[in-house]
Design brief:
By secondary structure, the protein is α/β, with parallel strands linked by helices. Helix content is 30%, strand content 18%. It has 2 domains: 2-125 and 317-354, NAD(P)-binding Rossmann-like Domain (Rossmann fold, 3-Layer(aba) Sandwich), CATH 3.40.50.720; 147-311, Rossmann fold (3-Layer(aba) Sandwich), CATH 3.40.50.720. It has helices at residues 18-27, 45-50, 97-105, 127-146, 173-184, 198-204, 230-243, 267-272, 317-332, 346-351; strands spanning 2-5, 30-34, 54-56, 66-68, 86-89, 109-112, 154-156, 159-161, 165-169, 188-192, 208-210, 249-252, 278-281, 298-301, 304-307, 336-337, 340-341, 352-354. The strands form 4 sheets. The protein has a 7-stranded mixed sheet, sandwiched between helices.
Length: 358
């Protein structure tokens, strides 16, 4: 049984590393990979060969039963995979409905890794969490590159430099890592989240929690933040308007599964920030949390720099690839049974967009 991957020049991470290649071989897979697959991430062909892979020299995608990918761009080659094969990747099913339907017509089975359930047994397969950790860390570094001042308190003979004030909007995995990173760098950090349970996590990292009074706990049964009612949104906006004049760096991470990202930072709030301040909008792939941010662009708005990258994890490609590949290997291990693909496990079932037979 062959396993391969899809290379996309727009994606710097890889879904299979030399480490996991060796593990796939031990599971009984024949690993066939494109040449130079991991060069950007820091993995050389020689490492893959030593782990037991065969390097594919042709420009076409090799035939395989199982294809791994981080996040395909869905260009025309993507739908030319072997009929009856399985594609395991982050597929963004809500954003890519039309192209996924076309792939299903080609007889390709689709496993969307975003749909892995939040249960204890699936934690080692949770690509969203592993990549969000890296993204939250990198988002702070990107902010520092644009911020023209120092972050920590500095006391010198020439005078004292005050510490930067960082506000993180959304205290999920990415937000908590952003909080921890900003704290380690010496910033004064505060954070907001609609979920009441987030307060304890935020404060445990040494940040202050921005609280908006609410009778709802703000989360779904799966633990994700949910969309709030208009009354809450109004009070939330009023609270943030009070805070933004003192914010030097704002980092937004808020997402609602299956829906556009909620607008948390309005044009009015941006205008309240001092010139030289920075906003990092980590949600531009689904519309953005900042009203004026632009996907994959860095813009200036009334003296404020707004970063709208969608590839924060890929900017730390070596480590994010290592984590992603391990997540995927743990997932694929559920599917490899006696030299065949078995999709009976409940975790695998939860990721299937549709199963094609025959």
């Amino acid at each position: 049984m062959k396993i391969s991957t899809i290379v996309d020049d727009k994606e710097k991470r890889v879904a299979i590393t030399p480490e996991t290649t060796k593990k796939y071989v031990q599971l009984g897979f024949e690993v066939v990979l494109p040449q130079s697959i991991g060069v950007y991430s820091g993995f050389q062909d020689e490492e893959y060969l030593a782990a037991g892979a065969t390097m594919w020299k042709k420009k076409t995608i090799p035939e395989a039963e199982l294809y791994l990918c981080v996040k395909p761009s869905f260009e025309k080659d993507i739908i030319k995979l072997k009929s009856g094969s399985y594609l395991v990747a982050m597929l963004s099913p809500f954003q890519n409905k039309a192209v996924l339907e076309e792939m299903l017509k080609q007889g390709i089975n689709l496993c969307a890794l975003e749909k892995i359930p939040r249960i204890t047994r699936a934690q080692s397969m949770d690509v969203l969490s592993s990549q969000a950790n890296i993204s939250g860390y990198r988002a702070v570094l990107e902010a520092l590159l644009e911020y023209r001042r120092v972050i920590p308190l500095m006391m010198t003979a020439a005078g004292t430099i005050r510490p930067a004030r960082v506000l993180v909007l959304g205290a999920g995995v990415a937000g908590l890592q952003a909080i921890a990173t900003a704290k380690r760098l010496g910033a004064i950090v505060s954070a907001f989240d609609v979920r009441a349970a987030a307060k304890e996590q935020v404060e445990s990292l040494g940040a202050s929690f921005v609280e908006v009074e609410n009778t709802d706990n703000g989360e779904t049964l799966g633990g994700y933040a949910k969309e709030m009612n208009d009354d809450y949104k109004k009070r939330q906006s009023e609270k943030l308007i009070q805070i933004f004049p003192k914010v030097d760096i704002a980092i937004t991470t808020a997402q609602i599964p299956g829906k556009p990202a909620p607008i948390l930072i309005t044009e009015e709030m941006v205008a309240l920030m001092s010139a030289g301040s920075v906003i990092v909008d980590m949600s531009t792939e689904t519309g953005g949390n900042c009203e004026v941010s632009k996907r994959n662009e860095v813009i200036q708005f009334k003296g404020v720099t707004i970063i709208g990258y969608t590839d924060f994890a890929a900017r730390v490609a070596y480590d994010s690839s290592q984590l992603f590949a391990r997540n995927v290997f743990n997932f694929v291990s559920l599917m490899a049974k006696d030299g065949k693909i078995d999709i009976s496990d409940e975790i695998v079932q939860s990721t299937l967009i549709r199963v094609q037979h025959g």
